Please model this.
Amino acid sequence: MHRLTSRWLLAITLALLTSALPARAEVLLGHDYVAIVPAQATDNPAKVEVLEFFSYGCPHCSDFNPLVSKWAEALPSDVVFKRVPISFGRPQWASLSRLYYALAATGDLRKLDGAVFHALHQEGKKLFDDKSIIAWVGAQGVDTKKFTDAYNSFGVISQAKRADQMAQAYKIQGVPALAVDGKYLMTGKDIKNYGELLTLTDEVIAKARSEHAKK
Model:
């Protein structure tokens, strides 16, 4: 009888401990993410595409950047991560979008990406017009002429305009925002931090991956 009682108590204890553990994230349509209607085409249908809509001018994007950058580096090979700098029609943010694409064109984005956020949100730099942006980039050791040519190029200006067109097509209301595979936009209602948002995004990526497998 004592042995049976001990086993019963052990079973109850394990059950209580299991119920006390945090539940695995389960995404809910309309709560954690919404469907993008109509669905948007991705650059590579063979892979799951994740887009981050952001702006250097957004303080929340500045907070999110270190976390999402580290998360993106660990994504599996069948997932491609891309960033889309948008302006919401604000001239200052439009200049920052061109800054992003110009740094990408000159090969300086990886080196200065975090520095742009830091300059704007920690140092209080006013990088909202062509002159101040070009001067700041030059002070970081970047070839000023090379950067200026890229910043004013048709390609960079077109990319920035295209980014804003994408924001409208994806119905982006605020940043940072994550979209998965052209089909799903994360909303993250009731989340407590950006880590939870990324965990939920992992779940939606898994959903998109399963949909790819059925094709």
Notes: The helical segments are 2-20, 59-73, 91-106, 109-121, 130-139, 144-151, 154-169, 194-214. Residues 26-214 form a domain with the Glutaredoxin fold (CATH 3.40.30.10).
